[in-house]
Design a protein that fits this description.
Elements lengths: L2 H9 L6 H15 L6 H27 L3 H5 L2 H21 L3 H20 L6 H21 L8 H21 L6 H21 L3 H14 L7 H20 L2
Pfam families: YwiC
Keywords: Membrane, Transmembrane, Transmembrane helix
Protein name: YwiC-like family protein
Amino acid sequence: MNSRAHARSKWIPDQHGAWAMLAVPFAAGTFLGDPRWLHLPLFVCWLLAYATAFHLQQHIRLRRCSRNPRAAERHVRPFLTFATALILLGTPLLVLRPWLAVAVAAALPFFAVNTLYALRNRERALVNGLVAIVPACAMLLVALRVGGEPPGEGMGPFAACLLYFGGTVLYVKSMIRERRNRRFRIGSIAYHCAALICATLLHPPLAALFALCLLRAALLPGRGLRIRTVGLIEVGLSTALLVTLLAY
């Protein structure tokens, strides 16, 4: 890795699984409604908000648990840069769409919970992951309203995103951190069974996708798949979710 790529890697959050969760609900809300130019700066602000929160929480976590004082300090500059860009770009959006302030306020409790887990150095905890998916999926409703549609029209797709990404959190843990935990795997399979039923009742075309999710939760743990392979499977399923939602 050259010096430029190494420097960039310190700025870009390394939680690769989060990118689909950031993009898919937002894209679904954008294209289920009427795509407008305002969606572009809103999406940039959404990514900036994620990067700002990531570096702030890493700084908080490392200040408490790391013996190396420089470990926490390397997150200060990215945090200040992303936060400044977020303020500069986000303020005009709030002026144009004052109701976005309500969306920001609604996300703050979830941000507070994630920050508390970071403070305790438990950011990989299951509850923390499940909490994080709620505001991410709720961006579907925000994007839908920016497109001129009432948020209530998007409650079905929002629920589908919650079901899918909740299952992803469980499945990925069963493949990596909890790969030797048989009870966790059984819990993941049980969740996917319930999610399949709920998704089918919600919108029958979702049944095929959630059946695939159930199969991968039941069959893939314990097979020694590489992390890259696990990620590629999730990219494919996330794309299938978006396609299915756009045909909602």
